[in-house]
User: Fold this.
Amino acid sequence: FAGLAVLSGEHVVTPVRVEIDTVRREIRLVRGAGQAHELVSRTMVRDLEKAEMDGMMVRLWDAEGGLLAEVALSDPAVRSGLMSVLRDEGKLK
Assistant:
C-alpha cells in the first residue's frame, strides 16, 4: 500500500513544446494545449547566442550559452522560414 500511495502522489509534469514564430522572430516554450496552455518562456531570436543545424535538427542556444531547445524540422517551409530568420539575425553557426 505504501508504494501505491507514493505512486499516486506523484505530480505528472506536462511536457514543454517549442513554438517558433518567424513573423515575431521569437521562440516560445509552452506547456499544455488549447485554452489550458501556459507560456514557460519567450526568447527573441536576436537574443539567442547561436543556432546550429544538424540535418533536420536545429539546436537553439540562449544568451547564457545554455541549450534552449532542440527541434526536428521536417516541414521544408518551416525549416526555410526559420533558416532565413536565423541568417538575418546572424545566429546560424
Observations:
- The first strand starts at residue 16 and ends at 21.
- The two ends are 54 Å apart (CA to CA).
- The chain has two helices and six strands.
